[in-house]
Write a structure and sequence with these properties.
The complex is a heterodimer. Helices cover 53% and strands 17% of the residues of chain A. By secondary structure, chain A is an alpha+beta fold. Chain A folds into two domains: 172 residues, no CATH class; 170 residues, no CATH class. In chain A, strands 1, 3, 4, 5, 6, 7, 8, 9, 10, 11, 13 and 14 form a twelve-stranded mixed β-sheet that branches. Chain A has a two-stranded antiparallel ribbon with strand order 2-12. In chain B, helix 2 packs antiparallel against helix 11. The longest helix of chain B is centred in the C-terminal third of the chain and has 45 residues. Chain B is elongated, with a radius of gyration of 30 Å. Classes of the chains: A alpha+beta, B alpha+beta. Chains A and B meet through helix 2, helix 10 and helix 11 of A and helix 2, strand 2, strand 3, helix 8 and strand 12 of B.
């Protein structure tokens, strides 16, 4: 019988107790896993942002438009490799509840600025050359069961055509996806001209510009130069990196990070208390046994080690079960919420932090009982009846 | 029988201090579960209260058909004039219809908490706007002069965003504004807005004479029928007409529900975790008193009395945890100010609200955990074999 067998037997000597402890540890790690993955994917806008991509918006606010002519002027700024523009369409399909993120863009430059969007070459060409083509993200296409060749109308909840209608007819001629799962594929884009020429009001305006610089080190100077171009005009601009822009937008929702931290913190405090006190109690019950072991010649450090390993093992079993369950849950719900949170998956970093937390939990809950066990003297232990 | 139950229950409760560590852990863990649940409820309720406290049934909100929110809507000055002459619209003492065409532009403000830019509504309003908001009052400074670059800001803006203090000059795009007053509408959505004269907004932001929404005082809440019928039969009007209460209730749903969709499963998962903890604690309680319980049974106490004592112990620990959690949430969160992106795509400032109802729900959840956590150990206590007396 080696030490590990002894540890295992000790751990499960009261099956009910071990089971309950593992269960409550599992729940805490399940919460950690799901929320950790949620947060990581939700803020992925900052991690999928290219480090040389900048966003130029109206200084008043990014919802306020700017003149179309700005686009051409930014092209001339030194250090800018590609620049495109986009306008919010406010699209929906059939019913206002079927809201679809839709942008009117300049096709060729848009695909140049977002090289991570992939599609077959003939579809790419069709998107660039077809006036009423709608390029649909793969997640969106799955959600509405659209395929290439379908003709659909999209309505706008903001814009109206000169004829008074708010409906634009499209042919879905391309579907894009991306290698990286975190890159959103839940929106649709189409040619700016097709939208602009029909508008009843707000013609020849664009929503924002997005551009790439030759090198990330140029970001700051390029940004300054662009904003200087339009200073003191009715539509001043503000240029920031894509990452900073996304981060600011996420921060508008409120301090989600703090709320999640509070919840995960509460979950871990709970198990820390429950597991910690139970371990102390469990080892106290065994004082006599430890006395016997010492009498048989087990050295104190070995007993210390055995108790500590027992507690770490308990945390690891519960922790891994919880993280595994979280992965299953995430995999199961990923498809259902792809429209709201694309690329919902368990990031390896969350997994790693989880295992680290399990080890730490085991150590913290095991250290006091281990020290107590190590200090047990044979006389008091065996004298205790 | 009752004597037995009372005696065993007392023994149980008096022996709690002997198991202080584990009992304390149980109370604490249940308190944390209740805190998480009540925290989410307070957030959701706070947001809902702000939205639903806004508006009255005798104010009609009119938007362009199908636009759903003010931001997407657009109406002409001709439509405003038609509404001014429409039936069902109240008039003030001078005979002027109480109608306000309004328009807002989203501008950037700096959120104090995160130091990041956030969307704020800069609303251009007509003279009737103030009387159309119940409880509107200037709490500091004065009202803006029509036709000038003066602003008044809501109390919520002052609380959550920097750069809009009284007397300050604010640069929005290429225009400079001066904050001349602070207004309050008693904690409604409008406290999260910045107001100025409609015509100034129309000029500075090239909106011509158009507006986004029309608000009008009705002669009575029922007069909305009359107004709707008129609008339907008038081809120059394409309006969705709602009373203000319904309008804001519709806008509240999404965010408030989202908070609960996140909060409820989390609280339940944590409650299940705490349940295992409570169960564990009660199991130990029965375990350590095995001899005692066997002795009681041997001298004639019923199994039911033994089980009852264990149940009461479990419920007392859980109830205590629930109360501690509720008090902690009340002290920590009640009235705490926060803001989030509302359906108008601008920030809505709200205060966390711990309601008596949510406290009941929280304590109820705690007792549920106590009940479920205690029941199997209680059955165990009832069925302790008498021979356990001889266990060493």
């Amino acid at each position: 019988m080696n030490d590990f067998t002894l540890i295992r037997k000790n751990l499960f000597r009261k099956k009910m107790r071990a089971g309950l402890l593992i269960f409550s540890i599992m729940i805490a790690f399940l919460i950690f896993g799901v929320l950790g993955a949620f947060y990581s994917v939700w803020t992925s806008g900052t991690s999928t942002a290219a480090d040389n991509r900048l966003v130029t918006v109206n200084r008043i606010n990014f919802t306020v438009s700017m003149p179309f002519a700005y686009w051409g002027r930014v092209e001339g700024v030194e250090g800018v490799t590609n620049v495109s523009h986009a306008s919010w369409f406010g699209g929906y399909y059939q019913d206002p509840a079927n809201f679809i993120q839709t942008f009117a863009v300049d096709p060729e430059s848009y695909l140049a600025v977002y090289p991570e969007l992939t599609m077959p070459d003939e579809q790419r060409a069709a998107f660039i050359n077809t006036r009423d083509c709608l390029l649909v993200g793969a997640d969106l296409a799955t959600q509405y069961e659209w395929s290439v060749g379908d003709r659909i109308p999209l309505l706008s909840n903001i814009w109206q055509k000169q004829d008074g209608s708010a409906s634009w007819d499209f042919e879905i001629c391309a579907i894009f996806d991306a290698e990286d799962e975190k890159v959103p594929a839940n929106y649709a884009i189409f040619q700016y001209d097709y939208y602009n020429e029909a508008l009843a009001f707000n013609r020849d305006n664009i929503g924002w510009m997005v551009l790439t610089t030759a090198d990330a080190s140029l970001n700051e100077s390029v940004g300054r130069e662009i904003d200087a171009l339009f200073a003191n005009s009715p539509a001043e601009t503000e240029t920031s990196t894509e990452a900073a822009f996304n981060e600011a937008f996420i921060a508008q929702m409120g301090n989600v990070a703090m709320i999640l931290l509070f919840v995960v913190g509460a979950a871990f405090m709970t198990i820390l208390m429950i597991v910690g006190t139970t371990m102390v109690m469990a080892i106290n019950e065994r004082t006599k046994e430890i006395g016997v072991m010492k009498t048989l010649g087990f050295p104190a450090p070995r007993i210390f080690r055995m108790v500590l390993i027992e507690s770490i093992l308990l945390s690891l079993v519960g922790g891994l079960l919880g993280l595994g369950l979280a992965s299953l849950l995430i995999a199961g719900s990923a498809a259902a919420i792809a429209g709201f949170l694309p690329g919902f998956s368990m990031p390896p970093s969350v997994m790693l932090i989880g295992v680290g937390l399990a080890l730490a939990l085991g150590f913290i809950t095991g250290i006091i009982p281990a020290i107590n066990a190590q200090r047990v003297t044979i006389v008091t232990a065996l004298g205790k009846l | 029988m009752f004597d037995q139950i009372a005696a065993v229950t007392l023994i149980n409760l008096r022996s709690i201090p002997q198991r202080a560590l584990l009992s304390g852990a149980t109370v604490f863990s249940i308190a944390l579960v209740v805190m998480v649940l009540l925290g989410f409820l307070a957030m959701s309720n706070g947001f809902r209260q702000t939205m639903q406290g806004t508006g009255s049934t005798d104010v009609a909100v009119m938007l362009r058909t199908g636009s759903q929110t003010e931001l997407n809507s657009g109406l002409s000055s001709e439509q405003v004039r038609l509404i001014e002459e429409a039936p069902g619209i109240a008039r003030d003492a001078a005979g002027t219809p109480i109608v306000s065409g309004e328009l807002y532009v989203i501008v950037d403000g700096l959120k104090r908490a995160s130091q990041t830019e956030a969307n704020l509504p800069l609303r251009g309003v007509g003279p009737a706007a103030q009387t159309l908001r119940q409880g509107f009052a200037i709490v500091e400074g004065r009202a803006y002069e029509p036709g000038t670059n003066e602003l008044i800001v809501g109390e919520g803006i002052i609380r959550e965003f920097s750069g809009f203090d009284l007397g300050q000059t604010v640069r929005l795009g290429s225009n400079e504004w001066v904050v001349v007053g602070v207004f309050s509408t008693g904690g409604t959505v409008f406290d999260s807005e910045i107001w100025t004269d409609l015509t100034v907004i129309q000029n500075l932001y090239q909106r011509g004479t158009g507006v986004q929404s029309i608000r009008a005082r009705l002669t009575s809440p029922e007069a909305i029928e009359e107004l709707s019928t008129y609008a339907e039969n008038e081809p120059r009007l394409n309006l969705d007409i709602q009373n203000e209460v319904d309008y804001f209730a519709g806008q509240a749903g999404g965010t408030s529900d989202l908070i609960m969709i996140l909060g409820v499963p989390l609280s339940i998962a944590m409650a299940i975790g705490a349940l295992a903890g409570a169960w564990n604690a009660m199991y130990s309680s029965v375990d350590t008193r095995m001899r005692e319980i066997a002795t009681l049974r041997a001298i004639g106490f019923s199994g039911f009395a033994a089980a009852f004592g264990t149940m009461v112990e479990s419920l007392v620990l859980a109830g205590l945890g629930g109360l501690i959690g509720a008090v902690a949430v009340f002290l920590l969160f009640n009235g705490v100010s926060a803001s989030t992106l509302g359906s108008g795509f601008t920030q809505v400032v709200f205060s966390f609200a711990v309601t008596p109802m949510s406290v009941l729900v929280g304590v109820g959840l705690a007792l549920m955990v106590g009940l479920l956590g205690g029941i199997i150990p209680a059955i165990r206590a009832a069925t302790v074999p008498l021979l356990a007396v001889h266990r060493s």
